[in-house]
Amino acid sequence: MQHPRVTVLGAGIVGASIAYHLARQGAQVTVLEQATPGSGVTGHSFAWINPHGEFPSAARALREQALTDYRRLQQELPRLRIGWSGALCYYDTDPAPAAAQPPGNARQWLERERIAELEPNLQPVPEHARFAPGEGSLDPLATTLRLLEGARAHGARVLTQTPVLELQVQDRQVIGVATAAGVYHADHLVLAAGCGTPALLASLGIELPLHASPSILLRLDAPRGLVKTLVSNSQLEVREASDGSLLAAEDYIATEGPAGPEAVAQQALASIRQAFRGAEAVTLRSVEVGQRPMPDDQLPIIGPLSAHPGLYLAVMHAGVTLAPTVGRLVSQELLQGHRCAELAPCRPARFGL
Questions:
Q1: What is the spatial distance between Cα 217 and Cα 294, in angstroms, rounded to a whole number?
Q2: According to CATH, where is 3.30.9.10 located in the chain?
Q3: Tell me: the pLDDT tens digits for 147-175?
Q4: Is the Cβ–Cβ distance between 32 and 8 less than 8 Å?
């Protein structure tokens, strides 16, 4: 098929990237979103483009392409804004820094003097820290909207406030979806609905090994320029947002009480005021809880379901980091019939699906 019909369910950053890459390659793309773009976990993401964090080693080949793909997107979508501030990381469990570092190493050990140059308001300045100059962050909602705008420019339809009622199946082949507005037929149906994916699959008798992993995002009003890079240490993760406010990410512990989101937010606020000179005036603007789609083995679930031709899954944690690479690779697989080696560890078949 020269111009296959592809319906993408979900207009978070992953679905938006898949739609953009498919439309750019000539597919007839329809995006169906039950609410508004980025209204799921995308809008509550700390949005650190972090290919070097803790994750299963089988995902390394996928994550290592993230920075290159984001820089490519910036060339293709000129109004896509990414803050390439670099990430400064230091933790209580860090080993002693190596005496020598290989040239071009993605994360470099820095001494106290250089750390103070990068973060002049940081106090106390750690003796050593790792710095990843190539890493950055973005506004996840603005990025999602820009990707959808790019998809529309290549002919895609984006329909919001359009929940899916059921999948349309004929002789086990998925041929489309039914909505209140009608049936949308497709040669390929891509499920990029995050934590909503298991419910969509339930009608097929498929139990997806995926759970919701809550996280906390804090928005804080602060003096512009208080934090220069993205700082991640044993107490906090914090960066400046595009409007000059601060964003901080925290682990979710309990629904309420002394370990609930509000209490965690107050503790984080105290840590930020203590960690940066001039942070006395920092105030808490909002506390948000996002539900991250977390496969049970923490690897993305990407690929076709053998028992149901026409159905393709794209659900994962670290959606912001992986979105541009996943969009490119999924487009190659669906339109060129090319099996991408980077996606081999991510196949649904590992769960017998």
A1: 17
A2: 87-133+212-292
A3: 999 999 999 999 999 999 999 999 999 99
A4: yes
Per-residue model confidence as pLDDT tens digits over 38-93: 999 999 999 999 998 778 999 999 999 999 999 999 999 989 999 999 999 999 88
What are residue 114's phi and psi, to 5 degrees?
-70, -35
Residues 274, 270: Cα–Cα separation, whole Å: 6
> How many beta carbons lie within 10 A of that of residue 254, not counting itself?
12
C-alpha 184/C-alpha 181 separation (Å) is 9
Contact residues for 91 (Cβ-Cβ < 8 A; gap 6+): 232, 233, 234
The helix (run of H) or strand (run of E) holding residue 303 is: strand 301-304
Amino acid in position 2 = Q
What is the value of pTM for the model shown?
0.96
CA angle 192, 210, 258 (to 5 degrees): 110
Residue 54 CA to residue 78 CA, distance in Å, equals 31
CATH of 5-77+139-209+296-351, one of 3.40.190.10, 3.30.1330.10, 3.50.50.60, 3.40.50.10490: 3.50.50.60
For the chain, the residue count is 353
Every domain of the chain with CATH number 3.50.50.60 lies at: 5-77+139-209+296-351
Q: Which CATH superfamily is domain 87-133+212-292 in?
A: D-Amino Acid Oxidase, subunit A, domain 2 (3.30.9.10)
Given a contact cutoff of 8 angstroms between Cβ atoms, the answer to whether 136 and 84 are in contact is yes
